[in-house]
Structures are given as C-alpha cells and as structure tokens.
Amino acid sequence: WQTGRMDNAQKFYINGAWVAPQSSETLDVINPATEEAIATIALGNQADLDSAVAAAKAAFPSFASTTPEERSELLGKIIEVYKTRMGDLAKTVSQEMGAPMGLASAAQAPSGLGHLMATKKALDEMEWQEELGSTTVVYEPIGVCGFITPWNWPLNQIVAKVAPAIAAGCTMVLKPSEVAPLNALIFAEILDEAGVPAGVFNLVNGDGPTVGAALSAHPDVDMMSFTGSTRAGVLVAEAAAPTVKRVAQELGGKSANVILDDVNVAEVVGRDMFGMHEQRPVVQRRQPDAGASSMMEEAMAVAAGVANSIPVGQPDAGVAIGPVVSELQYNKIQALIQKGIDEVQPYGLKRPRQAGRTRDGLFRQANRLRERHQRHDDHLHAKIFGPVITMLGYDTEDEAVEIANDTVYGLSGYVSAADQNRAIAMARRLLHRHGAHQRRSSRQQRSVRWLQAVR
Ligand code: NAD
C-alpha cells in the first residue's frame, strides 16, 4: 500500500489532525490476491473513540450554524480533491479487498464521487423551511453521527454516509471496516486537504466488538448509520437503544429476481449474471412450447456458460472476478458450496475444486448450483456473499411469489417481464423483510426491472 501516507495507517484522524492511538493493538491488512500484509493499522479502544466523539461534539455547534451555501462550497472542494485521488483510491480498494482494477477504477472509486456530487446537488436544491398550515417546520442537523461500514463497496458506503452528514451540518465519527480500512484513510486525507473544519469528520479504526460497539452505545452520539451484516446491525441497534439514538441500517440482501415467462430468459440471465450473485433468480419451470427446452433449462445453460467464461484471477490482470476478500470469507463460501453439492448435483458445470485455493491467492470460480425445489435450506437462505447463484423454479405465479417472499433478506426485489403491467403486478406482491430497515433508503424500494433493452 503506497498510495496513502504510510505513517497515517497507524494513526487516527481526530479533531483535524492525525493522532497516535491510545491503544497499542494493531491489525495487518491482507491483500487477498497475494495473502500478504500490505499495511498494519492501529485498532482503537474506548479511549480513542471517546476522544473522537468529544471532538465531534465540540465541533457540532459551529458546524451546525454554517450556511447551506458554505457547506455546498465545502462539498465542492472535497469533490475537487477527491478527483485528484481517484487513482489512489481505486488501487487501494483493489489491493485491500481484491476488486479487479477495472471495477475499482470504473465503479468503486467513482461511486464516492457520485455520492458527493449528488449530495451537493440535493443540498443546493434543499428547502430548509416549510410551512404546514400555521406551523413552520425547520430542518436541522441531528448532531453527532456514528458511521460503521463494510468492506464490499467501501467508498460507496462511507461517502453515502459522510457526504449527507456534511450537507446537513452534522459532525461525525467513522469506523470503517477493519478488513478494508486503507481507502478510508485516504478519504480522511481528502477531507483534510479540502479544509473540512477540525472535529467535523473523525476516523477511528477498530474492530466491531470494540470500537463499533462503543460508538453505537456512546451517550454523546445522536445517530448511528450502519451498513453490513444483519447480525452486526442487530447488535448496533441493541447497543444504541438505551440512549434512544436514531439508527439507520442497511443490512443483508439476497433478493429474488422473478423472471416471468414473457421474456427471453437467455437474454435476461446473460445480461444479469454479474448482478445476480446476490440475487435468487426465480424462473418459470414449464415448457413454453412443445419440443423447446424449458425456461429453467435455458436459464441454467446460459448461467453455466457465463459462469464458466468469467475470467477469475489476479485483480490487476483485466479479470472480472478477483480473489475472495479474506480466508474467513473464502472458507464460508466453500462450506456453503459443499453443502449445496452434498444436497443437490451441480447442473452442467465443472465441479468446484474441493481445495479451490490457487497457489497464491483466494480465488473462486463463479459457481451455480442446480435449481432445487425444497426451500428452508442454508444454500438458499444464507447470505453467501460470493460468486454463487441459487436458481429456483416455479410453476405458477403464486408459487413464484411464495418463493420470492420466503426469505429474511428482503432488501429489494426484482421482476423481469416484457409486459409492464405484469411486472408491476408481480412487484407489488414482493414483500420486504426486516421492516425497520427497509424504509431507510431509496435503494431498498421495491424495484421493477423493465425489459426494453431485451425485448
Ligand atoms: P459485518 O457486519 O461483519 O461488518 C460490517 C461492519 O460492522 C464492520 O465495520 C465491522 O467492524 C462492524 N461490526 C461488526 N460487529 C459489530 C458490532 N458488534 N458492533 C458494531 N459494529 C460491528 O459485515 P462485513 O463482513 O464487513 O460485510 C459483509 C456483510 O455486509 C454481508 O453480510 C452483507 O449482507 C452486508 N452488506 C450489506 C450491504 C447493503 O447495502 N445492504 C452492503 C454491504 C454489505
């Protein structure tokens, strides 16, 4: 890792300065493509977190009283500096979590810039005061916000929280993922260079049970925003409850993609194969025309073809799938695939390597298992978070709805149909789960996927 300022890796950004931690704990950041440490970060403790929260609390009154125009100008400066560090951010994300360089440069790093620009625009258009009958409603910043983020789209998750907080006039403490923390350090360097006032943004690295839990429980934090696993999200909400904080959560998703029988299933599956790895395609089982292969068979064949042709390898070599982020995650994916193989035969696909590790990294060829009828099995319900697709067949649309809604991961839902009325009718029947977190962001709204592109 040579793109950030190396000496900042073992410091925290508190009150506008890079400070030495009070804790002496450290953690190696592993490049999953080589399984070698690329940096060592400091892991904070309660005292480190207390300093950061105190800085955010002290900075709040003056930052809250800045004008929207001043904060818009500040976002403008952050955008300018962010643009100069895009290459560093992409390279760092690729190194620490294994995203292929193409994805890191074209999507991961720009996602942060996209949030900054969209937030600035929203801020410029925002009405801060509203008349409701005889009442004047004034929008005010909430206060000190605590942010906890995961490793998969690290900049996306971080900037989606930090940019709106700056726009609103909140101050904040970020605890990024300890698995991919280096991009967050560069982002802190960006905010520093852009002139974000001292104490407005603070960063403390650490693990979930120590810094994450302490942030969630801290009495001087007014709101928590968490993205990550449902397991940790529940712990954050529990820790936040005694101090009655607001909690926004964006948790696990394994959403159904119901493919209706009026589409060209091969085109839909071919098009969606990449995005489908955190979806459950639900496909019509019936034969559309006598003699033709069933939609399910067609979907399977296309998915197998795409899966086997996706180049997997070193993330800098123009591949589409890099290594799995960590050995822990790799083992989890392997165990779930093995469980699937034990229960059903893989369909038309190379058997996954039992000991699938290559000599120098944690690589996982895209996999897809045969459709299965039974539900309530781990393969369907576990959030695999790896390149594995589980495809399910339905006979009637009622059954498709039942399968789609039979999940605890109802983050969103997709319908692929040529007929828009049918698509909407089906989309309306897809439920959200974990209602408390479902309404938090527009990304979680029920979405209908139109098929103009493939008709
Ligand atoms: P994770 O929940 O283990 O970790 C996410 C963050 O939570 C990390 O910063 C971690 O340190 C922190 N954390 C862990 N335990 C905590 C605790 N007790 N208190 C406070 N913070 C704690 O998830 P991960 O492995 O980093 O990411 C993968 C998971 O995140 C997947 O399960 C996926 O479903 C979910 N995810 C969801 C979205 C989304 O947009 N909804 C996006 C990315 C990831």
Blueprint (SSEs and pairs):
Layout: E1 12-14, E2 17-19, E3 26-31, E4 36-42, H1 46-64, H2 68-84, H3 86-97, H4 101-125, E5 129-132, E6 135-138, E7 144-148, H5 154-168, E8 171-175, H6 182-194, E9 201-203, H7 208-217, E10 223-227, H8 230-240, E11 246-250, E12 255-259, H9 265-272, E13 279-284, H10 295-309, H11 327-343, E14 367-369, H12 378-381, E15 388-390, E16 392-394, H13 397-405, E17 414-417, H14 420-429, H15 435-438, E18 449-450
Parallel strand pairs: 7-8, 7-10, 8-9, 10-11, 12-13, 12-17, 13-16, 14-15, 17-18
Antiparallel strand pairs: 1-2, 3-4, 5-6
Helix pairs in contact: 2-4, 2-5, 2-6, 3-4, 3-6, 4-5, 7-8, 9-10
Give a brief description.
By secondary structure, this protein is an alpha/beta fold. Helix content is 42%, strand content 17%.
Description of the molecule:
With 455 residues, this protein is of the alpha/beta class. The chain is 42% helix and 17% strand. It has helices at residues 46-64, 68-84, 86-97, 101-125, 154-168, 182-194, 208-217, 230-240, 265-272, 295-309, 327-343, 378-381, 397-405, 420-429, 435-438; strands at 12-14, 17-19, 26-31, 36-42, 129-132, 135-138, 144-148, 171-175, 201-203, 223-227, 246-250, 255-259, 279-284, 367-369, 388-390, 392-394, 414-417, 449-450. A five-stranded parallel β-sheet has the order 9-8-7-10-11, sandwiched between helices. Strands 16-13-12-17-18 form a five-stranded parallel β-sheet, sandwiched between helices. Strands 1-2 form a two-stranded antiparallel sheet. Helix 3 runs antiparallel to helix 6 (182-194) and helix 7 packs parallel to helix 8. The two termini are 46 Å apart. The model is unreliable at 346-361, 370-377 and 434-455 (pLDDT under 50). The site of nicotinamide-adenine-dinucleotide has 27 residues, from helix 7 and helix 8. Residues 148-152, 175, 177-178, 207-209, 212-213, 216, 227-229, 232, 235-236, 250-253, 383, 385, 411 line the site of nicotinamide-adenine-dinucleotide.
